[in-house]
Design a protein that fits this description.
heterodimer, A: 177 residues, alpha+beta, Arc Repressor Mutant, subunit A, Glutaredoxin, 2 domains, 7 helices, globular, B: 616 residues, alpha/beta, 5-stranded mixed β-sheet
């Protein structure tokens, strides 16, 4: 079980978070049942849930910070670390498993040098696994952002990732973290 | 607006579509279709029509069920039937359109089937396809045939007629009609729907709720997704009928956030319903009012459990509570609540349209009607199917599914996802109904059906499911939280070759404790994959423990790859696929694998066209 470590939003994202909460204050009444929709809304916009966003949601809903953090960490959808430009999600459903998705994942992990839940050092990819996408007839399945790719094999998966990687110029060595 | 006027207009527009003087093209645009490239096919069809200077219409439809053929396109010339083409690429789609629309050659060599007035030379009828013939489509009646984003299509095919009929009856009569039909909950447990409604109706309380459970969380299942993507109104109509029977005015649809297309189609459907007077204060001019909210789930399998689902809607951690009190008495925010599965509700709308007697005509004595299954795994024809209850497993796997792919031997079928079990091939005579599957140690479940062949390890499968349930256990009760973890640890040891014979006894004991002692369905059924494999595939466990062998070639420490020098012709494909340079050999001479270097990734095994690489 991975430990949830909460991240701050970088300086340049501060105004974004203010805009978001101005919108959210208009849209939501702050009732407790709006907690999950608010977390979803924040993540959709920011890519992940930074600590200050969760604290702000706690203020709006008048729930304790513990309740907000507790709920957020309960659900698999929420992440607390920044994500790469492309989120690569490998399906680990039964049909995909039977058709070798563990080997597919292994190959992708080896190619991108990041484990599920991690972002690649260049900030381009984040690998995630999902329990099931519900596209079992096309197993094994991988989803890159919102595009679903079915009936994959290792070489096709690597080709897809390679095409994305190659469409970005290599960062200068100095700019790598 | 008066409903009869809406229906008249819908029927007129549907008739116009049926008698269209231009070509009509349908493209299956469910998530599966899109994953296979339906967007490209759609764009090509549009462009090709333009290129040929033809006026025509292109419709997006839901999944017709033959998922293995995705992307699928159906082409109809004025007066003719729809001709279906599968496994399309943009280029092939263009060639077909040019050939059929321009030169009147429907390319029978590429066509899969036709639907409508026939016959067409050299092309079989849709209903005669081996995959379709044994099926009866009730819940999926409109999937793949109508545009799911157009309420008129649904209405023209008899939609909302069931609601109109229900509103002319007493609520009690509606519940009785469902009771008489024998419909049982399609989410897995199989509780009689009519009875559930009566409980909620009789429960005291002014505020009552109905919830549609679309939190299809079990891996290996996609029936609800396809249904909501292909025909959302059939579910929504069922929900309205249920609300009327129970006497409630507010409903929730709890749907997985992983299904963005289904959510989008539901949102569109709700807007259209409002426009037609099917939502709001006075539905179809009656005194019945109803509103629906969509709640997106946030990725927790346990939220499929009724009390956990309600806790999640209320905005907290989705943890189950002990029952009683049952949701029908004390549910959402303490009010009487009725929860039905997506497929159940799609059946409700059909039953109210065609009557309880008609529905009870399908199925067996105790399991009436039909059941949808997501047929997947190592089977030739994967897809979404709907079969009458009581059909034999072998009919589903061998006839509808066409048997196991690549000529391998079928080993088992897994039903019911992480809560279900593995049924071995020698029990394939089993009829598919709630009681028979339970007796075999599995469950009907919501309809996941994953076929497994000789390359599937029956110790790895329970390990896989336990890793899922251990992760998804909410942690509230001890038997589930610790028991699933314990079973997983033991299975991990066995798969790594560290198992002992005593492990099997402990596994059995722990599985019984978890089954009996857990608070909710997740824990109570989590041992099923372990228990069924222990019951039917004990020899595989023994091979793992005593001989340290995994015959299926899945558990890495328990097998290795070898190249058979007799069969190997030295083509060299395997060595190019090997990422660790473990395969060496001269061209046209038998190759060999250096075992120390080999990571057992299986790339060579998959690549060899001559089956020269063996699992040893």
């Amino acid at each position: 079980m991975e430990q949830a470590i909460y991240a701050e939003l970088p300086e340049e994202g501060r105004s974004e978070i203010e805009d978001l909460f101005n919108e959210m204050r208009k849209e939501f009444k702050g009732r407790p049942e709006e907690l999950i929709p608010m977390l979803q809304r924040a993540q959709r916009r920011l890519g992940f849930l930074p600590e200050q966003a969760m604290l702000e949601i706690a203020r709006i809903t008048r729930l304790s910070a513990a309740r907000v953090f507790g709920t957020a960490t309960f659900y698999a959808q929420f992440r607390f670390q920044p994500v790469g430009k492309y989120i690569v999600r490998v399906c680990r459903g039964t049909a995909c498993h039977v058709k070798g998705s563990d080997r597919l994942l292994e190959t992708i992990v080896g190619y991108l040098h990041a484990v599920p839940g991690q972002m690649t050092p260049d900030g381009l990819f984040t690998i995630e696994t999902v329990a099931c996408f519900g596209s079992c007839a096309l197993a094994p399945v991988m989803v890159i952002n919102d595009s679903v790719y079915g009936s994959l094999n290792r070489s096709r998966a690597l080709k897809l990732l390679g095409e994305i990687r190659n469409s970005f110029p290599l960062p200068k060595l100095a700019s790598l973290p | 607006m008066d409903f009869s006027l809406i229906r008249e207009r819908a029927e007129k527009n549907w008739k116009a579509l049926e008698t269209l003087k231009q070509p009509l093209i349908q493209v299956g645009m469910g998530t599966c279709g899109k994953a296979a490239g339906a967007d490209e096919v759609y764009a090509t069809a549009k462009q090709t029509l333009k290129q040929m200077n033809l006026l025509g219409r292109i419709l997006q439809v839901g999944c017709i069920g033959t998922c293995y053929l995705e992307p699928i396109m159906a082409v109809r010339k004025p007066g003719g039937p729809f001709i279906y083409y599968g496994n399309l690429t943009a280029k092939r789609a263009e060639e077909i359109l040019l050939s059929y629309l321009k030169n009147d050659n429907p390319r029978p060599d590429w066509a899969v089937c036709f639907r409508g007035e026939g016959p067409v030379d050299g092309i079989p009828r849709f209903e005669d396809l081996p995959m379709i013939k044994p099926q009866v489509r009730i819940a999926l009646r409109n999937c793949g045939i109508i545009d799911p984003e157009n309420i008129e299509h649904y209405i023209a095919r008899g939609g909302y007629g069931g609601l109109a009929r229900a509103l002319r009856m007493d609520p009690e009569e509606v519940a009785r009609e469902i009771k008489d039909s024998g419909l049982r909950g399609r989410g897995g447990a199989g509780f009689p729907t009519g009875m559930k409604w009566e409980f909620a109706r009789k429960a005291p309380g002014r505020m009552k709720y109905i919830i549609c459970n679309a939190d299809e969380g079990d891996p290996g299942a996609f029936m609800d997704r396809s249904l909501l993507e292909g025909d959302p109104h059939s579910v929504l109509e069922g929900m309205l009928i249920g609300a009327y029977a129970i006497g409630c005015n507010e409903g929730y649809i709890y749907i997985r956030a992983e299904y963005p297309l289904a959510i989008k189609r539901l949102e569109t459907a709700l807007i259209q319903m409002e426009e037609c007077g099917l939502l709001g204060r006075s539905i179809l001019g009656s005194r019945f009012g109803f509103e629906i909210h969509i709640k997106e789930g946030a990725g927790a399998f346990v939220c499929g459990e009724e009390t956990a689902l309600m806790a999640s809607i209320a905005g907290g951690r989705g943890m189950p509570c002990s029952r009683p009190p049952f949701p029908a008495v004390k549910g959402l925010w303490g009010n009487p609540t009725n929860i039905n599965n997506v497929e159940t509700l799609a059946n409700v709308s059909a039953i109210l349209t065609k009557g309880a007697k008609w529905f009870a005509g399908f199925g067996t004595e105790k399991s009436k009607g039909t059941k949808t299954f997501a047929l997947a795994g190592k089977v030739e024809r994967t897809g979404l199917i709907e079969v009458p209850m009581g059909i034999r497993l072998k009919e589903i796997i061998l006839e509808i599914g066409g048997g196991v792919a690549k000529g391998k031997k079928v080993k088992a079928v897994q039903t019911g996802g992480p809560s279900g079990g593995c049924i071995p091939a020698d029990l394939f005579d089993l009829p598919v109904d709630y009681e028979s599957l339970t007796a075999a140690g599995s469950i009907m479940g919501s309809g996941g059906m994953v076929v497994m062949d000789e390359e599937t390890c029956m110790v790895d499968i329970p390990r896989y499911f336990l890793s899922f349930t251990a992760e998804e256990s909410c942690g509230k009760c001890i038997p589930c939280r610790l028991g699933t973890r314990q079973m997983l640890d033991i299975l991990n040891e066995i798969c790594e070759g560290k198992g002992t014979p005593e492990d099997l006894d402990i596994l059995k004991e722990v599985s019984e404790t978890v089954q009996k002692g857990s608070l909710c369905g997740l824990g109570q059924t989590a041992p099923n994959p372990v228990q069924t494999t222990l019951r039917y595939f004990l020899t595989e466990y023994e091979a793992h423990i005593l001989r340290k062998r995994c015959e299926a070639g899945v558990c890495k420490p328990l097998f290795h790859y070898e190249i058979d020098p007799e069969t190997c012709n030295g083509c060299g494909v395997c060595s190019t696929k090997c990422s660790v340079e473990a395969i060496t050999g001269e061209k046209k001479k038998p190759h060999s694998i250096e075992q120390e270097k080999c990571t057992k990734c299986g790339a060579c095994y998959e690549a060899c066209k001559f089956q020269a690489i063996r699992i040893c």
